[in-house]
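WARN retry 2 of 3 for item q-0093 after timeout on previous attempt; input resubmitted unchanged.
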Amino acid sequence: MGKFTRMFLATGMVLAVAASAVAAESTLLRLKYEEGETLTFKVTTMTLMNQMGMEVEQAQTQYMDQKVIEVTEDAYLLEMCITRVISKSNHPMQGEKSFDSDKDDPSEDPQNAALAMMVGKKFTMRMDHLGRVHEVKGYSKIGEELLKKLEEQMGDNPQFAMIKMMFQDMFSDKFMKKMMDQSNTHFPEEPVEVGTEWKMESSFAIPMFGELGMKLEHSVSAITDETVEIKFQGSMKSK
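OK item q-0093 returned
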């Protein structure tokens, strides 16, 4: 397959945290969700692959609603719902392609049909107040439905066997738990102040691509009475 790189970048993220100030200049970072509230996330993944000397660019954006359905002393139970999927690709042999589940008809392309099926699908995630993910349920079922749809669309296409192998591993509760946990911001247990920095590094195996290494770097840029502004950047690279 050659080189496979995913990169993402976000800055100026403002997070609601528990107001447990240790001093006027520092505070403890803790997630502060209330039962019933819904947050919307936009996540974009950019991929650069080198296939037989040709660079293939791909980007996929998912809009996801996160509803807080239970709050306990040490964790949140969250219902995740994918509301929109946008994909773009640029292949030297095939040219530019794009798909937006809000606007385009997915029936002409098996891959687009599979992406469109993700819209409206839900799974649950249990996460603690530091942002660490402990459990994901229901994502494996989404993968099973996607595979069934792709099999209907692709028929005897020889590429389906490879896609099936990759989907069975990537569209699983176990894989999503690890992916969500390792791409999520984990707050330090100690108080932070403006200028505080911390890093997260991890790696795990992805079928057909190899080992994926992730690195996230965070820095606190501002603190007010109710919010902490965190700037972060990260990268994902495979061996």
